[in-house]
Amino acid sequence: MWSAIARTILSYRLVWLGFLVVLTGVMAYFGTRLQLSYQIARVLPLSDSTQYQYERFKERFGADGTLMVIGWQSDRWFDLPVYQGWYQMTEQVGKLQGVRQVLSSARMFNLQRNDSTWGIRPVVTRMPQTQAEVDSLKTQVLSLPFYEGLLINPATKATLMAITFDEQKLNSRARIELVQTIREYGKAFAEKNNIELHYSGLPSIRTEVMKKVSGEMKLFMGLAAVFTGLMVWLLFRSGRVVWLSMTVVAIGVCVAIGTLSLLGYEITLLTGLIPPLLIVIGVPNCVFLINKYHEELAEHSDKQRALEVMIRQIGLSSLLANVTTAIGFGVFYFTNSRLLMEFGVVAAICVMAVYVVCLLMVPILLSYLPVPKAGQLQTLQGGRWRGVLNRVDYWVHNRRGLVYGLVTVITVLSSLGMFLIRVEGYVVDDLPKNDPVYTDLRFIEQQFKGALPLEVMIDTGEPNGVFAEAGRALYKVRALERVMDDYPEFSKPRSLVDAIRFGYQTYRGGNPKYYVLPPAMELKKMVGDAPLTGKASATSSLAQSFLDSSRQITRVSYQMADVGSIRMQEVLSSLRPRLDSVFAGTGYKVSLTGHSLVFLQSNDYLLGNLYESLLIAIILIALVGMVLFRSVPIILLSKLPCLIPLVVTAGIMGYAGIPFKPSTILIFSIAFGLASDGTVYFLTSYRRQLQLGLEPPAAISAAISETGISLIYTALILAVGFAVFAASSFGGTAALGVLVATTVLMACLTNLVLLPALLLTLKRYRV
After folding, report:
1. Which of 168, 542, 565, 766 is at 20 to 30 A from 284, Cα to Cα?
2. For the whole model, what pTM was predicted?
3. Which residue, 524, 590, 27, is CA-closest to 278?
4. Do residues 56 and 127 touch, judged by C-beta distance below 8 A?
5. Which of 299, 153, 280, 291 is nearest to 235 (CA)?
6. pLDDT digit string (tens) for 525-555?
């Protein structure tokens, strides 16, 4: 079959070239339509209970991640020039299209009551012109406990601007321009008043992260192309090999961005890695083909025959190797996580597409190029590495006991390191500690306890249940808030209870000491004859944002610190029994939800799916090997050279303190697929040598000689290519690059030394 494929490729060269040109043009065209993802990527499947509760919450109250905050701290917070500048900035932001509401110390609202009529009035009606006016406003602002801990921190003289976005604008391209405009207003205020501003909240974090993702995709495409190209040149010392390889991967990149666009996917933190990954992964395909071509030319100098043998012998092993790599990516489809499914499906498709492009492009272009001279062939065949391979061959035949001993020691030490791995994720832990996104979030946490949303949803089980039984549910909500106050990770709550406390302060003449939940009789009167909690009142929006339409379900909103998944699990384990105790006997259903909880829960979900996806990858890759080699003992033992590098990588993570999180969890399935490539190439060569009539020891030596140079070259190219990801500003991406580079280098050693030793030990079995 492969002889026919070789003849078809070489006989219809212009047709195939035309096909590749058209394919590249079409996919590049569709790639121009590719967009950044402006929505929060969903990791958990809809069937997950945490995701289900979050979706249920959003149906009733809308998205919870629409709040951006701008904070600062200064003794001059109520000086006339500073306050005027803050007032002007507040007004500017409030007029932007896509901004629903702005609150700050220059835009606050108070309640007023005339007889039985309630209303809302602004605390600040115009920009103050004198310091006396500002001092008067300061007195009013500090007399409103409703805003303390939300917009102002009197103890530290810190203040916030809270900006709520329209959800439709927030999940579109317009968000970037909107957030950038707000930052420009902030920059003008900061420079004029010599005050440092801090920006946080999910809209700001998401915008800055996506800007980095977009920039890094372009950066890594360039770095991957430069460094893999440089590595190819250093190994082959041939410009033609470099541009051949770069041409193949350039087409692969066009296919990748076109595939993303055609499938309706967008650029996320993961899919943005696919183009540079293909540059790195695609080059080894070219290396194996070109090495075989040069080997054949050195033997008989017949170009046509060399090209046909290259396609026939490398085509099948390269196919199997790319299938194993594609499986390493494709198993993410079984996670039921949209984020991972999109990444896995597109990466798997594109890996196979690059293989096809390489199998067509390399032989066709080589057929038009002149045959290298004899001196060049010696360099191209890696003559300087032959001494290393001879040493490897000696160890495999004469020092197998030592090989097994060293591998055992390394594996045991690495296994111990695995137990040190922490499973922990933070919302912004992929960013360096000196990144403005990180430092700004920490400022907000220090001054206002956090900027990440957490919601508590209380379902009373019956319409109007929130106000039934003399406001029983409201007193339970207040008890809940007291319990939550015991945890420093949570900010001051925003709830219907706080709106009523605000109203009761007004009801009792504005004295701050009456900012409390009123006694049952007064509460009943307020709820009954005051539209504070009704639908027709001017104040209804204050209360209705915490009620569903049937007044059956209410919410308590918190902003929380980015404490990490470990601490969050500890908090939840302590908190849930206490909340159950508060609501015991009521029949109410209490749910903790919100984007923060969903994100942290995603970490545990991904870890569980790591084991599942890795097991599926092992089974599928073993089945691929069975199709070709038909020897169960050899196939099973041949997985050791692929698995031991993963154990070593996990051990390094444990000793180096690199935790499991969404980005680093990807390492193992990807690395296993890449490590299996070398196993496939070596076993294919070994099988071919046996079919030529060689005995196992001689066949092992011949396989080492035939595949060794290519295995070393591809490992070095992959390692350098993945190492460029260490330049990422995202810690997880940098760790992924370094650890995968380490894994492929370790896999090169195990495939060249351990695998041949195992095959000699099991020489009675034939592949």
Report:
1. 766
2. 0.77
3. 27
4. no
5. 291
6. 766 544 455 444 434 455 667 888 888 999 9
